[in-house]
């Protein structure tokens, strides 16, 4: 009798878990691992997946005010923000990049980088590209070569989510604020945290919404350039 009750409870729990997982994964263009869903439950519980949490800019620390973006180069984004999954993964559920824009983004990344094998190059000015080291569902990333103590982990400073066209990148704090305020970006829900006692995610790690057309693609390139310059300068800081 007890065994049967336990079995019935297990089945009910399983069905509930499955339903909750399906709800979480619906709208995504990928199938995340169960452990990401478990982390997502925790993130939701903590309130970090709230829109207001990801759009807060007053707590982004800035040591100096001059970022790499010019206010006049960045118009206010015309559309309302996309519907999001703000957890793991951090993804757009609407307004994904059209295929031809995705193609242009990949082409642009290829034009500014070489494939990453060992991560070391003689020319410190080159950028490397390869699979992301921090994105669990797969993404193409850009790396600074020859990482040092000023770069995060392996020198990865930006990656493209190939399923929706959004981009995670590390920006100058002032640029991050500017882009969040002009509706181009939002913070990654786990910024400021120390993951696995290993990776500290800086305050200004943001998601840039997927460009929708050529004119938005140009803005995306401007943002990416600012990101590259910032991360290079940051790496060479003493
Ligand atoms: C690009 O897309 C945005 C958002 O849909 C729209 O507001 C803008 O007018 C478009 N620009 C062009 C040049 O089509
Ligand atoms: C937003 O819309 C205006 C007018 O519809 C257009 O001139 C401008 O280029 C658009 N901005 C972007 C970023 O597409």
Automatic annotation (TrEMBL):
Keywords recorded for this protein, A-Z: Signal
Alphabetical list of InterPro entries matching this protein: Luciferase (IPR048273), Luciferase_dom (IPR040841)
Protein origin, superkingdom: Eukaryota
Domain Luciferase: 154-226
Signal peptide feature range: 1-22
Protein name stated in the entry: Luciferase domain-containing protein
Source species: Rotaria sordida
